[in-house]
What we know:
- By secondary structure, the protein is mainly alpha-helical.
- It contains 16 helices and ten strands.
- The protein folds into two domains: 1-16 and 29-246, Growth Hormone, Chain: A, CATH 1.20.1250; 272-513, Up-down Bundle (Growth Hormone, Chain: A).
- The chain has helices at residues 29-54, 60-67, 73-100, 104-122, 131-145, 149-158, 162-189, 212-231, 249-256, 260-293, 297-329, 331-348, 411-440, 446-474, 476-496, 504-507; strands at 3-5, 26-28, 198-200, 205-207, 359-360, 372-374, 377-380, 383-385, 391-393, 396-397.
- A hairpin with a 2-residue loop joins strand 6 (372-374) and strand 7 (377-380).
- The longest helix is centred in the middle third of the chain and has 34 residues, at 260-293.
Amino acid sequence: MAGLQIEGEEEPLLGDTPGSREWDILETEEHYKSRWRSIRILYLTMFLSSVGFSIVILSIWPYLQKIDQTADTRFLGWVIASYSLGQMVASPIFGLWSNYRPRKEPLIVSIFISVAANCLYAYVHIPASHNKYYMLVARGLLGIGAGNVAVVRSYTAGATSLQERTSSMANISMCQALGFILGPVFQTCFAFIGEKGVTWDVIKLRINMYTTPVLLSAFLGILNIILILAILREHRVDDSGRQCKNINFEEENIVWMTQEDSIKVLILTRPEVGQILFLFFLSIIAPLTMDMYAWTQEQAVLYNGIILAALGVEAVVIFAGVKLLSKKIGERAILLGGLIVVWVGFFILLPWGNQFPRIQWEDLHNNSIPNTTFGEIIIGLWKSPTEDGNERPTGCSIEQAWCLYTPVIHLAQFLTSVVLIGVGYPVCNLMSYTLYSKVLGPKPQGVYMGWLTASGSGARILGPVFISQVYAHWGPRWAFGLVCGIVVLTITLLGVVYRRLIALSVRYGRIQE
């Protein structure tokens, strides 16, 4: 078999071939091709997992109302949180499993659970009662299946050299971002089927705009399982990229103990650097824009949907750019730079000036209250028409006392902040995973990736509740001020361990970075 010299493969997703690079590490061509085929299958797995989450995200509420009229918005919150809860519990378990058994096993089992969850989701209308609880279980099972992200990232970390690592992690993140973007697009394509659709009486399957997306996701999951069985192979390389089957893990464990503080900091800061954008846009953006700009519910859904789609495209571009930039200035500097950009984005959101939002003041007994101006505060009966011909009040609710003394966040402020946070978030998200995998060294990383994923899932459960409560009671000044404080604390913690945030093999002189 011909021998090839590989110098840290720059992910061939961009079209590179073995003959177009310099080689200085021995690896057979067969091993090289098999290794990257396996990694590409995991890119697909990450993409399909993200699609499975987002393909029904816009229709969960109307579908829940359709199958069970006793469901309210509070229960909707539990349905949405059940996904993150399932992922938080399952990630360390699948990660630990992958450390001691072939990685195919937890991957196939997790995807099978996702397929079963999607099938259950398609049948939640069948039971005579308690349908909402079946949907809760379905989304929770889907979250358990999504726990395989720990296996995907740990496999990639173990099958790539240090020089390949950033590029590969960036590609995983890009596939994840594309899945989140395209999932709602796929769902929109099935909207023409309508709510009634058709029924397959033999198996009591109702095919409509709500169930078709999950059935597609289940089909793709089965296809994913077939591809994993046919293509995925076990590959491990050391930090230099040399093929290896056995590692002296006792020695690595002794060395790793000296990195424990760095690893703990990265796990603790993961919720901040990885979930800030999620918490902000899913918890605050709708009420913020409706309060500040008197947008209707329809306008908030439309405009914020456009903003989220644009941010998804921006994230893909940033992931591609970071792969190139990391070679010049290093992951640590990029991570800190991304956090600083995020901090600036939230600092810009702090209200200032003497112009205040429109106040929603509705007198149920007298709808003829005139618009009145007190200084720069405009109080009036701001309403917008709805589809049923009635009117809905818009503006900042008088029930939120802070509306009377908190200046408006200007639209230019808001959009500038969105752009900056959209730059900083993908940078921080990618670099936290990349640095974490390098600091751990060439030991099996399944359980540690599980912990990192679980910390982010925990933030998605608790974060929205916390920040939305702060916003409702004290307004955007306190909400965004606290986020700025959290980011500053994160920067401080990373600064303390900054010098130790380097690859284990580099730190102990085994290879040169």
